[in-house]
Structure formats: C-alpha cells, structure tokens
User: Which sequence fits this backbone?
C-alpha cells in the first residue's frame, strides 16, 4: 500500500521508555511510515537516542529539539506542520504500539473514506510493560455526545487534510487533545473505532 503515515513522538524527559516507543514504530508490519521525534526541552540522553535512530533510518525519521519545554499542543502543531503523510498519529514517549497498529488503522481509513478519525481499544501496562488491564470501547453511536468516552488523544489516526482544515491544535490549552478533536470532528459525524487493542498505555 502506498499511503504514507506520519507518526510523531513528543518526549519531555521520558528517555526511560523512549526507545521502546520508537522501536514499536520502526518494527511495524506496515512500512510506509515517517517518524517525527520531538525532544521537548533539552535532554541529552533523549537527543542522543533520537539521533541514533535518525542515522539508522535516514530519510524516514526527522528530529526536532525544543530548547525549552513548549508543551504537548505546540509539539502536535510542530509535527502537523512538518508531516508528509496522508494520516497522522501521535504516540506518547512512554507508550508503544502493537506491531499491526498502523496497517489496521490505514486499512480502516482507506476502506471508509468518510471517516476522519479512527481510534482503537488498548492495553494498560505497568512501568515494566506488563499488561495489567484492557480498555474496550463501545462502538460509537454517531451522536454528538460526551456520553461516548472520547478517543485517547494519543494513538488515534487522523486525516492530515482534515486536521489542517480544523486549524490544528488550539495551543491556548496545554492539556490532552482528545476532547477538543472529538468535538470538532464529531460535528462532521466522521469518527469511528476499531474494536482491537492496538497500543499499550503505560500506567505510572
């Protein structure tokens, strides 16, 4: 499949888990990806880790270093401004993907052209990566309602074109992006979910 996907990982002092997050992208069964690594606030170890992967994977990985911590939403907008994929997905630096995550998300969006955002179930893992629970979403009922729990801000795949038309992320806020995108895109009734656990959400 020729559809290119952008995955980006913002990292603010999470070098302990950074390598596992990156490995979960480069080891995907779907290989038409680019990876944007954003070091949010100077961290020597994280910069070193990012540059090792950039050297190994050359044109597939981009590295950005913010000297000061800019916060999540500004990092999201930085990734959006520099991505070249048709779809984009954020992976937090302490989480990691199932190896079939990208192919499942891409196949879903390519099959359902009216969908702008797709999300999945996920596993909860402890600090060492052991599965401790699972989060299972009910199938979304297409109503504009917060009674449906919004997609996790990370590991939701979104059409880049749609996200840009919505103006990206509102950087006035400096918190998770899930609710904002949920409400913006739900107006268009173009959200759907895959009932498979496709990423691992670390609990600290």
Assistant:
């Amino acid at each position: 499949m020729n559809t290119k996907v952008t995955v980006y990982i913002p990292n603010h002092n999470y070098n302990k888990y950074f390598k596992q997050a990156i490995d979960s992208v480069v080891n995907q069964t779907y290989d038409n990806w680019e990876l944007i690594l954003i070091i949010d606030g100077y961290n020597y170890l994280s910069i070193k880790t990012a540059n090792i992967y950039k050297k190994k994977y050359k044109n597939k990985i981009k590295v950005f270093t913010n000297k000061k911590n800019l916060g999540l939403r500004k990092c999201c907008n930085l990734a959006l401004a520099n991505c070249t994929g048709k779809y984009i997905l954020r992976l937090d630096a302490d989480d990691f993907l199932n190896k079939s995550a990208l192919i499942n998300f891409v196949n879903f969006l390519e099959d359902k052209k009216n969908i702008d955002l797709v999300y999945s179930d996920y596993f909860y893992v402890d600090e060492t990566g052991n599965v401790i629970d699972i989060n299972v979403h009910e199938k979304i009922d297409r109503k504009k309602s917060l009674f449906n729990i919004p997609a996790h801000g990370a590991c939701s795949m979104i059409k880049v074109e749609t996200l840009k038309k919505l103006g990206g992320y509102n950087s006035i806020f400096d918190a998770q992006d899930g609710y904002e995108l949920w409400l913006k895109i739900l107006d268009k009734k173009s959200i759907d979910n895959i009932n498979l656990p496709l990423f691992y959400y670390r609990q600290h």
In short: The radius of gyration is 16 Å.
